[in-house]
Amino acid sequence: MHDLLLIAIITALLALDDRAGWQSLAGEPVFSSLFVGLAFGHVGAALRCGVALQAVWLSIGAARGSRRPNVLVGGVVGAGATCLSLHKTGDPREPLVIAAAVFCGLVAGEAAQWAEARAGVAREKWLERFRLPQDANVASRNLALYTIGSAAYIALVSALVSAVALMLSLPLADLIIDRAGEAASGLSAWAGALPAFAVATIAHAFTTRALGRTAALGFLLAVVVAWLL
Amino acid sequence: MAPVTGKLTRGDLNRVFARALFIQAAMHRRGMQSLGMLSALDAGAERVTNDPAALLARHADHFNTNPNMAPMVIGGVLRIEEEGGRGGPASVSRFKQACASALAAAGDVFFAGGLKPIALTLATLFAIYRFFPGLVAVFVLYNAALITVRYRGLSFGYARGWGLIEAFSSPRVQRALVLVRTGAACAGGLLAGVIVTGAFQQGTRAFIATVLVAALAWFAARRGVPASRLALALFPVAWIVGMLLH
């Protein structure tokens, strides 16, 4: 219960920034996993989970019109499941635990996107009912009320969704870890190969000749440095 | 920073800026950022006009732009309202909509297509190597850039008013957009290189898996298949392959 509350508070704060505030990147999995890792211990494992999720959800270009999963909830739930599973089970197979948690994070991101879209309907209707009062002072007060109310609603919904998602994710992660058996290496390899999604996103995003050439230069630089080291 | 010339003091602009930070908070489909825009304008309305209610009523319509560029439009609107709507070729509403559209496009290219990918790819790179100072540096620098663009944008918009339209169509803006996209491509290439070489160092099996997944994800991206759905679909495949190879 204490863990779920902590996750809900972390998500609420990050949602205020990511959905209602200035979008500082704190809600992206690579950073949110770091915060969750610091709160629950197991920073390294949480960060590995965050890297895998970030690679899948790496966004380059405007998201206008496209439907992106809820990366905030997904990242927090994935990292939370990693830390709590490692903490409770003490399973020495860390890559397998991370793979199970990444799977939970991906599912949570999809489910949270769906749930928040449904929950957002009530907020939309409330905001659409706003009428600007004739009196400037009343208008000022109402604007503050609607802005704060809307932000609080976003934070509350995100917090609830993440707490419920983590509550369901923990038994799911335990189940995967228990049943993996001989498939453990395959699942670990799955999580290990997820950064390849970032490679695909980068290759897909920078298709013009000039940008492709620059990306290739960066790629070669990384290869040469790795070879030299 | 250049001194503020006009009815709004630096303190007033700070209040407008603080409210503009939460322009997305009351975002909704019909008016988009209209409530956020009104809330920010409200912070400076009493200073620039004798009838703040009328000012707010003029801007209660649909408004949508890149949130990082919105303060620039807000600054411009406040300056034009301060001048009583004079000195321009069209109404202040037309100015607002024209700026919003142009800045939405420029802002998306600069932030979503450049600065954010640079920050995220570098952060991922540092996270792979567990280099925490690097992660913190990326976070601090990205937010410093964000806050600077928003704050200076507000001051710039308020200083220029109608002149804002000419300012963002200048070649310097275009050069900045090209530069940030080039930086994003370089950082992206660097991250791709690190991932591929990392897989190579782990062994042939990991390298082949990475190349196969990357190729599959690339084809999926071309066909518009969401990456997370493909990743989830690969989970049972990995389970079966793991059992077969054991």
Key attributes of the depicted protein:
heterodimer; A: mainly alpha; 9 helices; 80% helix; 0% strand; globular; B: 246 residues; mainly alpha; elongated
What's the topology here?
The complex is a heterodimer of chains A (229) and B (246).
Chain A: H1 2-20, H2 29-40, H3 43-56, H4 71-89, H5 94-128, H6 136-180, H7 184-193, H8 196-205, H9 209-228
Helix pairs in contact in A: 1-2, 1-4, 1-6, 2-3, 2-4, 3-4, 3-5, 4-5, 4-6, 5-6, 5-7
Chain B: H1 10-20, H2 34-48, H3 52-58, H4 70-82, H5 92-128, H6 132-160, H7 164-167, H8 171-202, H9 204-222, H10 227-245
Helix pairs in contact in B: 1-2, 1-4, 1-6, 2-3, 2-4, 4-5, 4-6, 5-6, 5-8, 8-9
**Quaternary structure classification:** heterodimer
Helical run tally of chain B: 10
In terms of structural class, how would the helical and strand content of chain A be classed?
A: mainly alpha
Order of helices and strands of chain B: HHHHHHHHHH
Apparent shape of chain B: elongated
The tally of beta strands of chain B, per DSSP, is 0
Strand content of chain A: under 5%
Q: Number of DSSP helices of chain A?
A: 9
Low-confidence stretches of chain A: none
